[in-house]
Amino acid sequence: QVQLVESGGGLVQAGGSLRLSCAASGRTFSNTAMGWFRQAPGKEREFVSAISWAAISTYYADSVKGRFTISRDNAKKTVYLQMNSLKPEDTAVYYCAAKYGPPERVRGPYTYWGQGTQVTVSS
C-alpha cells in the first residue's frame, strides 16, 4: 500500500510559480512510477507529468512542456512538480498518483491517488 498526500497548492497570479509536493508513505514505495494529473471544474482529469522510479524518464503534457518540471527524492519518498509561468488555464485540482512499473500518460494504470491540492491562477 502507498498513501499519497499533496501539498503546495494555492492562489498565484499569472506568470507566477508554485511547487507542489507529494509525500508518500508505506513500505512499498520502491519501484513506483509517479504521475501528476489535474482536473478543472467540469472537465475530465488529465495527465500533466510522470516520472520513472529512477527519474531516468520524464513525460509532460504538451500544455505544460517547458513550464513544469517533475522531480523526485526517493530517500524522502517525495515527488515534486515545479510549475513556472503559470496561466489561468492551469487552474485545477492537482493529484499525484503512483503505480508499479513504468510511468504512463493515462490515469487508468495508476493504483494509488492522493486527495488533491487546489491551484488557482488569477489573470
The value of Rg in angstroms is 13 Å
How much strand? over 45%
- Termini, distance in Å? 40 Å
Mean pLDDT rating: 96
Secondary structure: number of strands = 11
Number of helices: 0
**Global geometry:** globular
Low-confidence stretches: none
Largest sheet data: 7 strands, mixed
Write a structural description.
With 123 residues, the chain is mostly beta strands. 0% of the residues lie in helices and 51% in strands. It is built from no helices and eleven strands. Strand 4 and strand 5 form a beta hairpin. It is globular, with a radius of gyration of 13 Å.
Secondary-structure blueprint of this entry?
Elements: E1 3-7, E2 10-13, E3 18-25, E4 32-39, E5 46-51, E6 58-60, E7 68-73, E8 78-83, E9 92-100, E10 112-113, E11 117-122
Parallel strand pairs: 2-11
Antiparallel strand pairs: 1-3, 3-8, 4-5, 4-9, 5-6, 7-8, 9-10, 9-11
Task: Give the structure's gist in a few sentences.
0% of the residues lie in helices and 51% in strands. With 123 residues, the chain is mainly β.
